[in-house]
Each structure stands twice: as structure tokens, then as C-alpha cells.
């Protein structure tokens, strides 16, 4: 079957490319891992080489001759700087790199509105200001922007979702004046457009990879937003929890809700909003405590109908982003019982409690009540943990249409093709 659109997901462990037909059904996939020893996750050229490899593998599996549009998502808050020609000036700062200059964070916090996602040490804007000091740096881009630029030859555009943590105002739909008061030249910031907006046609580099010369490049989104879109959640009150290395919460809302002191922010999706945040708890701490090899054995021993009574706050190291924004918050993993299976269930209950606390916080801050939940990520396949979470959250658990962020981004590409 001929592909009609392609979504590219530049994630933390690799690049995934998915081709879909005109109805949004996947017709081919191509992947390339980037978490091998010796690869630098901050090197933009490595991202591009992995994208090339993923697209070549996709082309070997699907007919790309009818592709009309391609879109890219990337990790939220990962930024780089380029020269005037779009060439990277040094390596990127990643989404989980704290700003290395606390004075920059303080300058932003002094002028940014209380609800701005650009506040705090995890601010993409703070990282961007540090990077702009590099000789030859003229423009800030996000990970998805730069990969899309390699496909289109255009390095002056971003989407409203990736721009959020760099200080973009999604309500007024513009870069606010207080950013320029920090010494940022207007030309250093890309034009921000809505996800799904066509931004141009593919360049020769994309044609060489098998895309038709008249295919459109469509503004993408962040990896978290793309994962939400992939699940099929589409009604106000629909929620999606991503149970990966970290715990990511998103709820579809009819209004924005922002509270940086809680790690809560809102991405604009047309006239609606994805409200949520990301906790440092999740699969990484589970793997750290138990190792991956023992998980099947420990999972078989779970007894969801018999709560342990343990009260943990599992973190891989001190520091939390959401639902508590505290860079010094210590993990709580005591008392530790001698029974390893009991300890394992207590840790899963602790993560489920963080998830429940997160959704309750969103409601307390003014978001609509959660009416249903879809789960994605490796932890979603754990039936025992699912039952623990179901008891904690008390809403219907619905199946996800897909867990692949690249499929959500492919649907954005289709939407852009329709608008065009």
C-alpha cells in the first residue's frame, strides 16, 4: 500500500520513522538506535545520520512515491544553536541538562511571568541563552526544528509546542517582549507556527532519501505531544500516562493550566490544550533497584488486591520535576522489607501514588476532571501494575490506538496535507 505521510520521532534512544496511508494506518516503519556506546546524544549530526538510516529502512519496507507530507517530533526542551546557514555551532543541550549558569536562570525568573514554562533550571530558554554565547551562533532551534530543516533547507521555523519552554506565549501566539529584554535578538528566535502547518517543500537531501520532490514539510511537535496524538485520545478529559524511564502525564483540556512551581505547563493543540508534566520517577528507578532481568519474576508475584501499606516516593536520585518541582527532593524508599517481591510491589504502588497525585493536582489547578486513561510505554504492558494503578486512579482504562510517537507525528503530517 502506498504511503501518504511520514512521521519522524527523534527520541532519547533512537529515531523512528512511520509511514501511514491516507486513513492514518501504518504501512511501514524504519528505526535506528542512538543509545549505543560511543554515540553522543548531544551531537546534532548524529541525530541526522540516524534519521537518514531510519528513512532508508522505511523506504525498503514501504512505497514512498505517494508521500505528500513529512513531519518531525523531538525531545521537549532540547536546544541547539546554528550559524546563518543552519549549521550547528557545537553540541546541543538536552531536555534533561540543567542550565549550567544559575545567573541566567535568575535573570529569566526575574522577568518571566509566573506561568511561563521558561522559568527554572529546566528552562530551554536558559539553555538557549548560554548556547548563544558561542562564537558564530545566530539562531536557536529545537531538536525537531533542525531535523525538519535538514529535510526542507529551512532553519528559521519552529512549532508552538517545542517553543513553549523557550518562552513562547501560546495564548498570545507570539514571542513575548520580555525575552528580547534579556538581550535576545528577534532574529535569533525562529518563527513559531501551529503544529501541522506546512512550512515548505522537501529539499534535495530528502529527495535523495526517497521522498517525492513535491512533498511538504509540516511543523511537528514534542515527543510527548506526539505520543498523546498517537493513542487516539481526542476528548476533553482524556488522559495519557507514559510509563517509560520517566512518568509523563498529559490531559486534554479546554483551557490552559500553568504552574511552574508544580512543574505543570500546557501545550496548545489548535483550540485545545495538553496539560501536564513529567516526573523523574518511573522505569529508570525500577531498573536501578531491581535490574531488568528480574522484572518478569517479580511481576508474577504481584498481588494488587493486597496493598503493601508501604509509602514510597521512588526516584533514581534526588530531584523531582512534577507533581513537586524540587531539585533537592530525596527519594523515599524506606523501610525496605526483606521480601524483595513485597518491596517491588511497594515501589510500583509508590509510582502509582505519584501518578494519582499528579492528576489530582491538575484538577486542583483548574484542569477538567480526568474521565479516561490510556497508558503507553514499557510499563503499560504490566497487568499487575495496571491493576494497582486502576485502583489508585478510579477511571476507565482504555486501549491506546498506538504507542508510537512517530504515528502521532504522521497524523500531523496528514493534517498539514489536508490544510494545504
TrEMBL record:
Belongs to the FGGY kinase family. It comes from Inquilinus limosus. GO terms for molecular function: D-ribulokinase activity; D-xylulokinase activity. GO terms for biological process: xylulose metabolic process. SUPFAM superfamilies: Actin-like ATPase domain. Residues 243-415 form the Carbohydrate kinase FGGY C-terminal domain. PANTHER family: D-RIBULOSE KINASE, SUGAR KINASE. GO terms for cellular component: cytosol. Keywords: Kinase, Transferase. This is FGGY-family carbohydrate kinase. Residues 5-98 form the Carbohydrate kinase FGGY N-terminal domain. The lineage of its organism: Bacteria, Pseudomonadati, Pseudomonadota, Alphaproteobacteria, Rhodospirillales.
Amino acid at each position: 500500500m502506498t504511503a501518504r505521510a511520514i512521521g519522524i520521532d527523534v527520541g532519547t534512544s533512537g529515531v523512528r520513522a512511520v509511514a501511514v496511508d491516507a486513513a492514518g494506518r501504518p504501512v511501514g516503519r524504519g528505526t535506528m538506535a542512538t543509545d549505543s556506546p560511543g554515540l553522543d546524544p548531544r551531537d546534532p549530526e548524529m541525530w541526522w545520520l540516524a534519521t537518514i538510516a531510519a528513512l532508508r529502512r522505511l523506504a525498503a519496507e514501504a512505497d514512498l512515491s505517494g508521500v505528500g507530507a513529512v513531519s518531525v517530533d523531538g525531545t521537549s526542551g532540547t536546544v541547539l544553536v546554528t550559524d546563518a546557514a543552519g549549521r550547528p555551532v557545537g553540541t546541543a543541550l538536552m531536555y534533561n541538562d540543567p542550565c549550567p549558569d544559575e545567573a541566567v536562570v535568575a535573570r529569566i525568573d526575574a522577568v518571566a511571568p509566573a506561568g511561563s514554562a521558561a522559568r527554572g533550571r529546566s528552562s530551554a530558554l536558559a539553555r538557549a541563552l548560554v548556547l548563544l554565547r558561542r562564537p558564530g551562533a545566530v539562531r536557536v532551534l529545537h531538536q525537531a526544528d533542525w531535523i525538519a530543516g535538514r529535510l526542507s533547507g529551512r532553519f528559521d521555523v519552529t512549532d508552538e509546542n517545542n517553543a513553549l519552554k523557550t518562552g513562547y506565549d501560546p495564548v498570545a501566539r507570539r514571542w513575548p517582549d520580555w525575552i528580547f529584554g534579556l538581550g535576545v535578538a528577534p532574529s535569533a528566535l525562529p518563527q513559531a507556527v501551529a503544529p501541522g502547518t506546512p512550512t515548505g517543500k522537501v529539499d534535495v537531501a530528502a529527495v535523495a532519501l526517497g521522498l517525492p520532490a513535491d512533498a511538504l514539510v509540516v511543523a511537528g511537535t514534542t515527543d510527548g505531544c506526539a505520543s498523546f496524538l498517537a493513542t487516539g485520545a481526542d476528548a476533553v478529559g482524556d488522559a495519557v500516562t507514559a510509563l517509560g524511564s520517566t512518568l509523563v502525564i498529559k490531559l486534554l483540556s479546554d483551557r490552559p493550566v500553568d504552574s511552574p512551581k508544580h512543574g505543570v505547563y500546557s501545550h496548545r493543540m489548535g483550540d485545545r490544550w495538553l496539560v501536564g508534566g513529567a516526573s523523574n520517577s518511573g522505569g529508570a528507578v525500577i531498573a536501578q533497584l531491581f535490574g531488568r532481568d528480574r522484572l518478569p519474576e517479580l511481576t508474577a508475584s504481584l498481588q494488587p488486591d493486597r496493598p503493601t501499606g508501604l509509602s514510597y516516593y521512588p526516584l533514581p536520585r534526588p530531584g523531582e520535576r512534577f507533581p513537586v518541582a524540587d531539585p533537592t527532593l530525596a527519594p523515599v524508599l524506606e523501610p525496605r522489607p526483606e521480601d524483595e517481591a513485597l518491596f517491588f510491589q511497594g515501589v510500583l504502588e509508590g509510582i502509582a501514588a505519584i501518578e494519582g497525585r499528579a492528576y489530582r493536582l491538575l484538577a486542583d489547578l483548574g484542569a477538567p476532571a480526568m474521565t479516561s486513561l490510556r497508558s503507553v510505554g514499557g510499563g503499560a504492558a504490566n497487568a499487575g501494575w495496571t491493576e494497582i494503578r486502576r485502583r489508585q486512579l478510579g477511571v476507565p482504562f482504555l486501549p491506546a490506538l498506538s504507542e508510537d510517537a512517530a504515528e502521532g507525528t504522521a497524523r500531523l503530517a496528514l493534517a498539514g496535507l489536508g490544510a494545504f
